[in-house]
Amino acid sequence: MRKSKRERQRLLQETIRENPFVTDEELAEKFSVSVQTIRLDRLELSIPELRERIKHVARQSFADKVRALPLEEVIGDIIDIEPDASAISIFDVKEEHVFRRTRIARGHHLFAQANSLAVAVIHDELALTAKATIRFVRQVKAGERVVAKAKVTGKTKSGRTVVDVNSYVGQELVFSGTFEMYRSNMEKKDGDSNEYRD
Amino acid sequence: MRKSKRERQRLLQETIRENPFVTDEELAEKFSVSVQTIRLDRLELSIPELRERIKHVARQSFADKVRALPLEEVIGDIIDIEPDASAISIFDVKEEHVFRRTRIARGHHLFAQANSLAVAVIHDELALTAKATIRFVRQVKAGERVVAKAKVTGKTKSGRTVVDVNSYVGQELVFSGTFEMYRSNMEKKDGDSNEYRD
DNA sequence: TTACTTTTAGTACCTAGTCATAAAATCGGA
DNA sequence: TCCGATTTTATGACTAGGTACTAAAAGTAA
Questions:
Q1: Which parts of the sequence belong to the MaoC-like domain (chains A, B)?
Q2: pLDDT for B1 beyond 90
Q3: For residues A30 and A15, is the Cβ–Cβ distance under 8 A?
Q4: What are the structural domains of chain B?
């Protein structure tokens, strides 16, 4: 059955959002209307043509790619970094990061921000978290901006680097953690458990 | 001065690699040759036309984005649960969960699996992680299946529930953590057959 | 000059559209 | 059921950024 205009336009938006590479012709076939109708729909919904959509997606990703490679894998945006000393990142808590019912941020996102910052601050080819002690000091809600501050504080006797990370919303401490990081270029060679290299 | 054919084609490749959004016309102007010459060059160098280049960039980034979205939600599948006692979940480590270079799983995914299992095992309206001590025992690689086992081990004097989570690949322990969970209804033991907190 | 490479020009055709106009089909209400 | 409005479809002219092909002009080396 052919849907109503409203319903078709709703589905059209959804379809294009899911697959921006779809042509008007394909959409026309999908909704059993003429190509002209699809074009009228796009006009009414202010959806740009295929090529413009593709260009937009490409431009975005190209801009992203220009960002430094190691920083790309960090959760949150690094705004300051002094290798092997300190680093700061910000992470905006959005709806997708919180429990639906309570709107409180899920712990692993705060952990991910802190952990990836601890990885980033270490100026080495390979950095992995060996151990961590973390404390969720207060709940973070959607809409809040979390500023994580990492500081390299020392080394364990086994040669691991210790990084302290404190995360704040405004002046308020919301998360704190101590990370023991394993790194590849340790001056002291220790018979650590099975490390994996490729 | 107009460069030799060889030199022009070398620069052409470089230019397009740096900016795939450049048209033949712009290139012709840049190298002071005709558009036809540029097209001949692309033909000889097997460089696709502008639209194909853009499409390629867009397709790549789109695939990445589709993979990145569920990354935020996937924290393992619960395969067994005994409320307020124990729970088991599995998590398949895929390419999107690992560091590209080393193919070692990023710590926050293992944490997320364990943490969300600790949340799930607590049979209450609200469960939040207050504190956690975790240990990454051995590195997990892409393709491996991580089985997390949570066990409620007791309570702190402040009334928090303590959950121990151990994660395995096969028989081998890869992650272990102790989670101190805050919960809303601490004394109440209602038979509320609630939904899973996502 | 001849022979060859390189460059330029021009044509027809393509896709996936744009914009504008007009006709046909469908729908809701009295 | 007819009327007017909305919605859909058709048509034509035009666009960018090409492909594919043919042909001629310009440059170069012997």
A1: 102-168
A2: no
A3: yes
A4: 5-70 (1.10.10.10), 77-183 (3.10.129.10)
